Amino acid sequence: MRSTYQTSRDASTACLSAIETPYMWLAVVRATTSPASMQTATLGVDRQFAGVASAMVNTSQQVGGSIGTALLNTLAATAATDYLASHTPLTPAVGVDAALASYATAYWWGAGFFAVGAVLSVLLFRRRGQGLSLANAHLPAASASDPEPVLAH
Fold first, then answer.
1. Angle between helices 50-86 and 92-124 (to 10 degrees)
2. Distances (CA, A) of 15 to 19, 49, 82, 83, 126
């Protein structure tokens, strides 16, 4: 939603009003989905590997974000270059329009990547009870009287 909303900007759009609303929604959505996505990503991992699994998810998010930012920046730079090459003579107004065209290109590609990711998430998401760890299935279930393992006493 944020990406497609941002593509409607032009040179006369006030920056604060065009940015504030979508980023407020983005903050709300990220705050409500991040804990659930981390929990889902580590679902079924044995206790002894939970820290490693969580670190792997965090690292994957960081690397994916870096690659995604580089890709969108490349797409935006290419769009701006193409716009400038096709709109001569170069004036300050053409430069502003080229910047807006590059933003719109990056936002549309970002929205497309998000839509593909949403479809893949729906198709590949493990349903409740599927994919749980069976590594310790042969061990008896822990009872309430069993002490909780601790690092130090």
1. 150
2. 6, 46, 24, 22, 41
Cα angle 45, 36, 71; round to 5: 95
Distance CA 80, CA 103 (A): 9
Tens of pLDDT, residue by residue over 28-69, are 988 888 888 888 888 888 889 888 999 999 999 999 999 999
Report the predicted TM-score, pTM, of the whole model to 2 decimal places.
0.66
**Distance set, CA 110 to CA 56, 106, 114, 144 (Å):** 24, 6, 6, 49
Inform me whether the pLDDT recorded for 125 exceeds 70. Answer: yes
Closest CA to 39 of 57, 26, 63, 52: 57
Mean pLDDT of 102-115: 92
If you count them, how many residues does the chain have? 153
Residue identified by tokens 């759009």 is 13
